[in-house]
Write a structure and sequence with these properties.
The structure holds 2 protein chains of 2 kinds.
Chain A (H helix, E strand, L loop, with lengths): L1 H22 L4 H17 L3 H8 L1 H4 L2 H19 L2 H28 L6
Helix pairs in contact in A: 2-5, 5-6
Chain B lengths: L4 H44 L4 H21 L2 H9 L1 H4 L2 H14 L5 H8 L4 H24 L1
Helix pairs in contact in B: 1-2, 2-5, 5-6
């Protein structure tokens, strides 16, 4: 059941991305920026956490979940250290993902050649 | 039903983009859903291993990023993306793909100005606007809290 919920909610969020690809002239970078910022806003308004509780990875794996992590990190850090937390919370909470992208991105780029499209 | 060739042409034009759209939409749903389901497996694996929920969630993201980086290196991710569209772009694996692809492609222009700069072609704006939004939210949250 847990897996089915993750599949359906994750699938729907990705289908929304597909609508933006097909119906607008937005580039992938703009669409991803839109998803992250939407995730921050939805999390700030309290809508994203219930979705995560319902769908688990179906809500955290799409990039809107990355925005949710940023917002959640900021929320916890502000509660903990006040104003300073607004500046430290976001990147602290997402450090693992960003660092992993840089490290694995670098390693793969060093050892692999781009394939012909 | 008899149709003039003009009418037939019009009907064809009306029908083609619609089916293409539907195919793209179902492709995105299936591939995106599958990636999230794999994510749930990975997440449960870390939770069963005894990690706290936030740590398991971070470890899950990192694992998916590593998978996607390797698949991008072998050129497999881009093949899946042809069918998956938004289903391969929107998950965190699409973010990883957007980091690895330009880094790999621009390595030939040098490690600093090629790889080092282009690795952030798409990750850069995502991180910039994500962080800006989170700081704006943090300040609003702080003001509401002290009031």
């Amino acid at each position: 059941m847990e897996y089915l919920k993750a599949f359906i909610v994750g699938g729907i969020i990705c289908a929304i991305g597909q609508v933006f690809i097909d119906k607008t002239k937005l580039t992938p970078a703009r669409i991803l920026v839109g998803f992250v910022v939407s995730g921050v806003i939805l999390s700030a308004l309290g809508f994203y956490e219930p979705l995560v509780e319902f769908a688990g990875a179906g809500a955290t794996v799409p990039l809107s979940g990355f925005g949710h992590s940023l917002a959640k990190g900021v929320r916890a850090a502000v509660a903990d250290k006040g104003f300073l937390g607004a500046f430290t919370g976001g990147l602290s909470a997402t450090a693992g993902g960003i660092t992993a992208a840089i490290v694995f991105g670098f390693i793969i780029a060093v050892f692999f050649k781009p394939k012909d499209k | 039903m008899s149709l003039s060739s003009d009418e037939y042409k019009k009907m064809g034009e009306a029908a083609v983009p619609k089916t293409k759209c539907l195919r793209n939409l179902s492709g995105a749903f299936l591939i995106g859903g599958t990636i999230c389901t794999i994510g749930q497996f990975v997440l449960n694996f870390y939770l069963d291993a005894g990690l706290s929920t936030p740590n398991a969630s971070a470890a899950c993201s990192m694992t998916l990023i590593a998978f996607s980086a390797v698949l991008t290196g072998f050129g497999v991710y881009d093949k899946i993306a042809k069918f998956g569209g938004g289903g391969t772009l929107v998950p965190i694996t699409g973010f990883a793909n957007a980091v690895v692809s330009p880094a790999m492609e621009f390595k030939s222009e040098g490690f600093v100005l090629g790889l080092g700069v282009k690795i952030f072609t798409i990750a850069g704006p995502v991180i910039v606007y994500g962080v800006l939004a989170s700081v704006a939210y943090g300040i609003i949250y702080w003001v509401l809290k002290i009031m």
